[in-house]
Amino acid sequence: MALAMQEQELRLGVNIDHVATLRNARGGSDPDLVRAALLAQGAGADGITIHLREDRRHIRDADLGAVMRAIRIPLNLEMAATEEMRRIALAHRPHAICLVPERREERTTEGGLEVAGDAARLRDYIAPLRDAGARVSLFIAPDEAQVEAAAHVGAQVVELHVGAYSEHCAANAAERRDAELRRLFSAAALGKELGLEIHAGHGLNFENVGPIAAIPEILELNIGHFLIGEAVFVGLEAAIREMRRQMNLARL
Ligand code: PXP
């Protein structure tokens, strides 16, 4: 019983951007993004996450509607806080929106959103999204000032950027990894205290997910690149099921 409750508490959002990366490498329609979304749903994903980037390097506009129509679990749309993206979000009304910083030249979302320094604009930006029923999340570094600012501008959720933690794990830099974990623990505790729901993501894999999944305030992990890569070896369904298992083990 306790296990069943814990399992429900930590959700897995599967990010399928890199299925689209593979598809776009050849310009056709394979591998099919909707098929991947449905497969992830069947394998136990609690939500599907996609990032519609300004340069459309993976997810394209038509993918958003196609995935939303196909799945029955929530869709989390990651996007930059631009007018164009807000227009698209308001037209499609996904369950959740996660605002992320975006730079054209980056390979992936490198840092967290600067909320504290852009508070007035973000407050105005978020309000219509919330009015339209979206659960708005801000992707931020595990930094006290950013957590406080996120609560202040009206976000319901913060997704903590665990990229630095993941890099320290990969480099076997134990001290730096532990220092980053401590930052994540206190950011999660502060966020919860301020009434925010806490998520986390970036760079998670079977090896490093445990300590993040064990942070009790965290209710959702968003995981993409590793799962799609692992799918090459074991299939997407098996990769997702194993990730779920690792997450559940960490919550025991
Ligand atoms: N969460 C957010 C906000 C992201 O931008 C990304 C990367 O697109 C992820 C989670 C997933 O990161 P990864 O693909 O490294 O698992």
Compose a concise summary of this entry.
The protein has helices at residues 2-9, 17-26, 33-42, 61-70, 83-92, 119-131, 144-152, 163-170, 174-193, 209-213, 225-234, 236-251; strands spanning 11-15, 47-51, 75-79, 96-99, 135-140, 157-161, 197-201, 218-223. It contains twelve helices and eight strands.
Globular, elongated, flat, extended or rod-shaped: what is the shape? globular
Proportion of helical residues:
40-55%
Task: Name the CATH class.
Answer: Alpha Beta
The count of β-strands is 8
Assembly classification: single chain
Number of H/I helices: 12
**Beta fraction of the residues?**
15-25%
Largest sheet: 8 strands, parallel, barrel
**CATH architecture label name:** Alpha-Beta Barrel
Can you list the ligands bound to this structure? pyridoxine-5'-phosphate
- Strand and helix order: HEHHEHEHEHEHEHHEHEHH
What separation lies between the terminal Cα atoms? 11 Å
The CATH superfamily name is: Aldolase class I
Strand order of the largest sheet: 1-2-3-4-5-6-7-8
Q: How would you sum up this structure, described in words?
A:
The chain has helices spanning 2-9, 17-26, 33-42, 61-70, 83-92, 119-131, 144-152, 163-170, 174-193, 209-213, 225-234, 236-251; strands spanning 11-15, 47-51, 75-79, 96-99, 135-140, 157-161, 197-201, 218-223. It is of the alpha/beta class and 252 residues long. The chain has a single domain, classed as Aldolase class I (TIM Barrel, Alpha-Beta Barrel), CATH 3.20.20.70. It has an eight-stranded parallel β-barrel, surrounded by seven helices. It is globular, with a radius of gyration of 17 Å. Mean pLDDT is 95; it is low at 1-8. It binds pyridoxine-5'-phosphate (PXP). Pyridoxine-5'-phosphate binds at residues 15, 17, 51, 78, 98, 100, 108-109, 139, 159, 201-204, 222-226. Pyridoxine-5'-phosphate binds next to β8 and α11.
